[in-house]
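Hi W., the alpha-L-fucopyranose complex you wanted:
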Amino acid sequence: MRSVWLLGCALGVSMALGEASDCRLWYRRPAANWTEALPVGNGHMGAMVFGGAPECRIQFNEHTVWTGFPRSYAHTNAVAALPEIRRLLFAGKQREAEELAMRDFMSVPLRQEKYQPCGDLFVALDGVASVTDYERQLGLAEGVHAVTFSAGGVRYTQETFASHPAKVLVHRVAADRPGALACTVRLTSPHKEVSVRTGPDGKIVLTGRVQADGVAFEVRAVVRASGAKAKVEAQADRVAVSGADAAEVLWTAATNVKAWNALGGDPATACAKTLKRAAKEPFEKLRAEHVADHGALFGRASIILPRTAASERPTDERLAAFRAADDPAFAALVFQYGRYLLIGCSREDGQPANLQGIWNDSLTPPWDSKYTCNINTEMNYWPAEVGGLSECHEALFHALDELMASGRITAREHYGAEGWVLHHNFDLWRGTAPINHANHGIWVTGSGWLALHLWEHYLFTQDKKFLRDHAWPVMREAARFYSQFLVEDPVTHTLVSTPSNSPEQGGLVAGPTMDHQIIRSLFKACVEASAVLDQDGAFAKTLQGQIGRIAPNKVGKYGQLQEWMEDKDDPKNQHRHVSHLWGVYPGCDITWKETPELFAAARQSLIYRGDAATGWSMGWKVNLWARFLDGDHAYLILSNLLVPLGTVKGAGGMYPNLFDAHPPFQIDGNFGAAAGVAEMLVQSHLRDAEGRTIIHLLPALPKVWKDGSFRGLRARGGFVVDAEWRDGRLVRAELASEKGGSAVIKAGDREEAVVIQKGQPLRWE
Ligand code: FUC
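Structure:
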């Protein structure tokens, strides 16, 4: 074991392997349906490119096109029912408690709103009948979708991308014979109140409404063509291009949503401004600007696992063959695809990633394509920090500010408490009250879990200004709510969370294990944050006093970790939710180092829950098995997930475009899988007695990943980690730190404390 100081920048271990990371999805046929189409996105708009020929469909979304309108969902004076609901639960009268809660305690209205599609762009090539030599691909590193094919002796190329700097979607089609390109461009929308007009200079403007008292939107496109004899001609509802070498469509969309609590914005002015600015730029400049912006995020991290002959197949065939073939690189692709998707659907100035990211073609999407925060919203952000995409987390943080404003009212009206609370869902209008049904909607730890994302961001970035100005107020006020909300259990005299539930299991109860893990972790984070910032010491002291009184994790009669206060778990229950294992991952309330008995019980619970489940559940289980330091089991779950939907009985899988199948499509499984691959390679949730982060290298390496490397994964404490292994053994690692700091590096049984200076990467071998 030897540590060597390196001068200058990190060597880039993976480059040393001389292999390119796996960064491309590709197919030999156009998409026949939506789950074969490929996504691009800029955080404001998402688009699914079908890549068809002669007609290419591009279905697109704008992030604020939702049903509904600003409103408070809080149930005025619901708190009047709270003491009786609690009394009934402590008396074992669950049904009566749920009935009372349904009557007097739920969100008004009972359901939240739906994320909506915006429109479709069609580009139809004239004079093209059948095509040959077809290929389409999504280049993850550049963020560009490309199609090539031949027809009538002409070679055509299409490129599509979503530019974040220019805030437009861009589609270009070119022919290799001058003047051979003729096409028609039109815009449509599935909404009812829609009108389309065309204007001079190749403009198409589509306006629409989701509902009379709600969201109004505009889509504005400009079609331009190049070539000596090119003509662009506006027709009634479309624009025709003829005699061109190439045609380009730039389009953008906006709504009247000013903020989560205000309509009245002017989509026409917003679209006109954006498009005017973008239309001044030539295609090459827009493309280069986009590739640079996307690449600055995407290029930060990579995982290299060996490519084999199986890796060379088109992506759909590769997916179908994955379980039987030797194709380790496929997991690296899934990691990078997760990062690609997060960049596409979650940028600092847009809405956070919803159940489908930003991609939805349905007016009635599954679970409204909103935000479910008893697992799904959080899972979307699991790869953000470790995958070097901290900035993509910001969209969620902005939403938390708004949820805090809304959640204060819910805390007051439902619980008579200060601080803020979020239950298991929110929507564009930031509903925070309990929705749907008392048996799963009254779950109080959405705010606690999401507030911990701010703390994680701080742990990874060591950004104290962020902690002080942004994270702390949200964390502190989330903790303030629980501090007042917890009550003493008459039997154990511990502090319990009630009413609540263990997500979607066993109905309304007093004291689900998950809540206690989250609240305990939040309180601990607050105590530490208060010390780091030297602020709110008295409040931190109150929390410190409560931490030890919160109901502890308990081992039950089947050797399992109890999901509830009572020992009533059913070991045959293979439900997708594994909420009481929150303390193992994403939390660290239960660890191999500090609580080995609870750790063993949690592992037993996971064994009882089984290996096959819905997409996101398997995403979670990959991470859990990684935390249980069992790489082969994590890989087994991965290979249940990385299969075409329908392969594994009772389980999800993937669609041909590698969208995760719950089923149906839900993006959390993509993010869970991406985070899981990283968690198998590096973990940093533990600290030593002196408070130094333990950077555990290759903690859960499966046998099948014999050789490989990674670059740019992030560890808590502000570290950037590169590593390379051969024959399952670490051969070297490099650690860099932007701020400088000390850590403990652990690989197998070897442990070494190191100090890493700012700008001076450390090589460890
Ligand atoms: C919860 C989960 C479902 C699904 C939905 C969005 O209801 O139990 O599996 O993920 O959220």
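Residues 355, 367, 372, 376, 504, 576, 614, 616, 662, 666 surround alpha-L-fucopyranose (CB under 6 Å).

W.
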